[in-house]
Amino acid sequence: MKWSPYFLAAACLLAALPGRAQVAGPPSASDTAIMRDLYDFQSMGSILYVAAHPDDENNELLAYLARGRHYRTAYLSLNRGDGGQNVLGPQFGEELGLIRTEELLAARRVDGGRQYFTRAVDFGFSKDYLETLKIWDQQEVVEDTVRVIREFRPDVVMTRFSLIPGGTHGHHTASAMLALDAFKVAGDPNAFPEQIREGLAPWQPERILWNVGGFQASEVGESKTIRMNIGGIDPLSGEPYGKIAARSRSMHKTQGLGNFTGYRGSSGPRNESFVLLAGESVTDDVMDGVDTSWSRVPGGADIGTQIAQVIQQFNPPNPAASVPALLEIKKLLAPLAPDDPVVNEKRALLDHIIQECLGLTVETSVPQAEVVPGEMLKMRLSVSLNSDIVPVRWMAARYPAIKTQFAINTKLSTNQPASCVSTEMLPADAPLSQPYWLREDHTPGMFVVDDPALIGRPENPPVFPVEQVFEVGGQTLVIPDQPLQTTATRKAGDTRRLDVISPVSLKLASDVELFAPGSSHNVMVTVTSARLDVKGALRLDAPAGWAVSPATQSFHLGAVEDQKTFTFNVIAPAEPAATNITAEVQIDDKTYDNERVVIDYPHIPLLLLQPPARLKAVCLDMAIRGQNIGYLPGAGDSVAQCLQDMGYQVTLLTGADLTPEHLKKFDAVVIGIRAFNVRTDLVSHLPALFAFVQDGGNVIEQYNRPGGDLKTDQFTPYSLELSSQRVTDPAAPMTFLAPDHPALNVPNKISSTDFNGWIQERGIYYPDQWDDHITPILACNDAGEAPLKGGLLVAQYGKGYFVYTGLDFFRQLPAGVPGAYRLFANLVSLGK
């Protein structure tokens, strides 16, 4: 990289503190961490593990390979889990995919691996790998997997799932097939030549293996299996690999796996089985025939010898004593394989080890974690040194985003922290912070990524990277850094990464607005300022056929977090239609259309999203009956808001509210998804809820999941049994089993067209048995399967109605599917 020839003036403040005794080891890392890094530097072996989803990885195997054998170990999850369920809160789809990305990164920080992804979207459960390959772009997923192989350069690739179709998620089988396809072409320079033009070199792993899972063991058949003992204890931490794996797996908290934390793990033997899928034969070990030493690098044998001596002579009470020998290794490494990404990675690791041994800490802090393009970024650069074994001089701070550097040139003294203040301008064209795979609208199966260099990455690179440059014993040491803000809002010592924001954020009053044909509604937009004295003009961008007035509205916000709400009148077309309407502001010569969404869970970093502020405008013929609805939330959904959008008055309920006196004011009670899986305050109040129905009330209960966390199996007045049955094809034709039933006729006449445009799936966890008093209303099925009748069940109980539905209303209503609104209105209106 070329840097500007000039140096910016530096105002360095040597914060000389009273002398203190030198401590035995560096404060920035434990001796165990240094030893782990030394062993990691010594080993040149690499393994890439491939599966479909977050939580598909074999955590214990990853921990053993990364921590026990010190191989470069990575997990490639083809998708980010966008289509799954969330036991922690209301986030689904793209937001859930972002949370699960961070959960995987948290898991890798525990087990020692690293994380990759392809552009594939998790579109929900798939019964057939052929369906998966039809929705995913097969060629693009193979291309992305080849890219990861060429970047990471594994010696061995492993799949979690078998190539044999059936018996598991279609994504699972597809992940093995696509990994095998990528393995076969990754070493071919004629495959995906655009990657070669970008600078990636072909890379052919030695072999690809299937890591046989217990539930697929019967599929091994006559294939030769090798077994490898991955049990035992990590010698550096003293923990069994099983316990490390349990801590890693417990990070998948949105999937209900947080309870793995208490697992202690066994220190005894534990075998894993592997079957060769392609490549070089294997006899005893997954790395048979692979040179995992530095001898594989031309000229690297001496490095292997010398790092072994450093490890043998390492003195934990005095890690700095290893620095002279490490600097000699750095000299040997300098001329070797300049274009080898693995060797370059080892260079960076060696610099980090030297930093750890010196007790050299760096920190770039900022007073606020959010900055607007074109603003000045005030950074405090701080360093401290815990050793005087070799002279250390702080030379500069480099800023790659603006291709300049900040000259410092200060000799460091032991236990005398130094700091500098550097003020730089964030480029005016800096993009707003948004996960790179969410910057463009995606297809049902694939994310759209404009910059190929980002493909495979788990998250965005730092907004404003910093490289701290030191001269150590006559050699240059580069330490990567990024601006962080220390926060006190979550837990002690927490930090937040820098985000680029717009000067205002926009929020529509609702994500969906329902219109009768030709009708007009007032649409409200709230503008919130992130900076002082912001002026601009607000508008709604609507397609032809939709009228908006006024065309624009001016605003002036004086203080930070000032808010003003503006009302626009929107007139729908005369015929049913659905579209997106986007709110936009013009500030000076820039246009912004972003909302502000903050996701805050304690087990992952605080997440900021800035998606377009969009309204799904739905023009439809729909009538409702009744007025007051009680909503009993479950695991998290937005159906209550959707009921308000339909025109109902909605009151949120708790279990304690389920009393005859309180319930009698409601026309209907709707129960949120998985309520009987996650709530403990419902079962004792069910008699009052059933009495409410018996007296003429109406209850709509959305799906629950069968299994051990189900609080009762008597959550309806009549018996029914849940199952794992589902219909994954969102376009599966619907059969009307009870065409004259009020659920299909009052107040809206439901037809087959009302099931057009559904997303992800028809429904999940359908009951497969029920009492004769219960009437199945609809039937549908995936191709080649028998019709399932448990998606919508209605029972008249006394004077009222009880509805149980596995249909995905919790997905369809927020997505603005017209027919889902019309059908749900009928369910709420039963008996009215």
Q: Rg to the nearest angstrom?
A: 30 Å
Largest sheet geometry: 7 strands, mixed
Strand order of the largest sheet: 4-3-2-5-6-8-7
Total strands: the figure is 42
Question: Mean pLDDT across all residues, rounded?
Answer: 93
What general form does the structure show?
A: globular
Portion in beta strands: 25-35%
Query: Oligomeric state of the chains?
Result: single chain
Helix content range? 10-25%
Kindly, what is the distance between the CA atoms of the first and last residues, rounded to a whole number of angstroms? 72 Å
Total DSSP helices: 17
Structural class, from secondary structure content? alpha+beta
- Low-confidence stretches are 1-29
Describe what you observe in this structure.
With 832 residues, this protein is α+β, with helices and mostly antiparallel strands. Strand 27 (577-587) and strand 28 form a beta hairpin. Residues 1-29 have low confidence and may be disordered.
How are the SSEs ordered, and which strands pair?
Blueprint: E1 11-14, H1 31-42, E2 46-51, H2 59-68, E3 72-77, H3 93-111, E4 114-117, H4 129-135, H5 138-152, E5 156-159, H6 170-185, H7 193-198, E6 207-212, E7 225-229, H8 241-249, E8 271-279, H9 301-313, H10 323-333, H11 341-358, E9 361-365, E10 370-371, E11 376-384, E12 392-399, E13 404-411, E14 418-425, E15 466-472, E16 475-481, E17 484-486, E18 495-497, E19 499-500, E20 504-508, E21 512-515, E22 520-529, E23 534-541, E24 547-549, E25 553-557, E26 563-571, E27 577-587, E28 590-592, E29 597-599, E30 607-609, E31 614-619, E32 628-632, H12 639-646, E33 649-652, H13 660-663, E34 668-671, H14 675-678, H15 686-694, E35 698-702, E36 720-727, E37 735-736, E38 763-770, E39 774-776, E40 778-779, E41 792-797, E42 800-805, H16 809-812, H17 818-829
Parallel strand pairs: 2-3, 2-5, 3-4, 5-6, 10-19, 21-31, 32-33, 32-34, 34-35, 35-42
Antiparallel strand pairs: 1-14, 6-8, 7-8, 9-11, 11-14, 12-13, 12-15, 15-16, 17-18, 20-22, 22-26, 23-25, 23-27, 24-26, 27-28, 27-31, 29-30, 36-38, 37-40, 39-41, 41-42
